[in-house]
Specification:
153 residues, mainly alpha
Length: 153
Amino acid sequence: MTSAAQAAGTLILSFLVGLVGVAAWIRTTLPLVVVPEYMWVVPLIVALIILVVAWPVKAMADGKKRTMSPLRAARIALLSQACTRAGLILAGLGIGGWLATTGSHAVFLEEQSVRILAAGLSSLLLGGAGWLGEWWCSIDDDDDESTAQRQGA
């Protein structure tokens, strides 16, 4: 499971890369990358999918449902972990890029600034949904060790 320190470190590092990278890119003569208007929709849809597929794993871990295979639960846990990390990286890049483009007098950059912020915030929600999915899919290690010791393994 992704720890709070790993999540914070990922978010801060990607924020700094986004801030410095976009600020440096703006100062060059290279053409700017256009962020699509609805870029924020995809991370939100994936966040909802993660929550929907991770909920049955939580129900199985709570003892309310027993029909899921352990392999499927492990795959959902790995998908949640991947979404946590990807969401936090994209959120940091997006929020850093937004901060780098904020205050520009160019109309194009003002419009892009709003799109970058929306994509960054929806990616932050993706990271949060992935983290929640990871938490739902985690099993307490102490229980496994104590069970194995009681069985003489």
